[in-house]
Amino acid sequence: MTADTTPTTVNRAAWDLRTAVHLQSDFYPVDRVRAGQSTLNPPELALAGDVRGLRLLHLQCHFGLDTLSWARLGAEATGIDFSPAAVSAARTLAEETGLPARFECADVLALDAPGTPYDLAVTTYGVLCWLDDLDRWARAVHRMLRPGGRLVLVEFHPVLEALHPGRLSGAGGYFPGGPPQAVWTEGTYTDPSAPIRYPEYRWQHPVGSVVGALVGAGMEVTGLHEYPHCSYRLFDELDTCADGLWSDASAPGRLPYMYAITATRKTT
Ligand SMILES: C[S@@+](CC[C@H](N)C(=O)[O-])C[C@H]1O[C@@H](n2cnc3c(N)ncnc32)[C@H](O)[C@@H]1O
């Protein structure tokens, strides 16, 4: 029998390895979420608005800290991730906190239409670079939402890959280069010295491709925002934090660090 080396299988194994390290890290504040705090950041909170009573789908939820935070705000939250290790940890945290969040293990590109569609889909920070086919992703988002249902996407800005080559998608530029190759990675973003080593595949997605995929899938894009700051301290130059957002004090406003897209499933 030959080993399954498809990008999805390779990446899922990488995320299972990473999850074990992330659960122990300071980057993911598991204890603070257990104690009642939220991991949500100002951009997604502002764009989602009042989520009380909404059926909320959190795509690529990792081990669920944001999903639990949405549940704490009153959403009927479901988190989806393809890493069995992440989903198992998320379910344990839901039990421990008693928060009404559900977790499912699935590939975001291959989601079946739900029995009851969602009011709001949310996906944030470091999600699209793991997906090889944005058209499939956008069709899956469309399928999961009710007509009039909304998407909130907040993502690191892909132009940063041109300025910090290799840090986001590995493409080294703003536009995708050739077909991606499996790249061996050591450690993980929460701890570059963690004793794990694994191959992974990533893809570069310019903002225009994301908008194009959503429009092509039947979504109406209602907003496109670019931010001169970042919800995470992604790079050393992000040295100043105000109201939970990091910026470069030496060159404020020089670069977009994040972007966000809001879109609605058309009603006709
Ligand atoms: C950077 S993390 C999630 C970011 C999120 N903001 C967080 O920190 O909780 C990316 C997640 O995408 C998941 N993922 C990658 N490819 C996926 C796919 N095809 N289907 C579902 N989940 C996927 C990984 O397992 C991982 O948990």
Describe this structure in words.
By secondary structure, this protein is an alpha/beta fold. It has a single domain (7-265), classed as Vaccinia Virus protein VP39 (Rossmann fold), CATH 3.40.50.150. It is built from eight helices and eleven strands. The chain has helices at 7-23, 30-34, 42-48, 65-72, 84-97, 134-144, 160-163, 207-216; strands at 55-59, 76-81, 101-105, 118-124, 145-156, 183-186, 197-200, 219-227, 240-242, 245-247, 258-265. A seven-stranded mixed sheet has the order 3-2-1-4-5-11-8, sandwiched between helices. Helix 4 (65-72) links the parallel strand 1 (55-59) and strand 2. The protein is globular. The relative contact order is 0.15. The mean pLDDT is 96. The structure holds S-adenosylmethionine. S-adenosylmethionine is lined by residues 8, 11, 15, 60, 62, 65-66, 81-83, 86, 107-109, 124-127, 130-131.
Record the SSE blueprint.
Elements: H1 7-23, H2 30-34, H3 42-48, E1 55-59, H4 65-72, E2 76-81, H5 84-97, E3 101-105, E4 118-124, H6 134-144, E5 145-156, H7 160-163, E6 183-186, E7 197-200, H8 207-216, E8 219-227, E9 240-242, E10 245-247, E11 258-265
Parallel strand pairs: 1-2, 1-4, 2-3, 4-5
Antiparallel strand pairs: 5-11, 6-7, 8-11, 9-10
Helix pairs in contact: 1-5, 6-8
Bound molecules: S-adenosylmethionine.
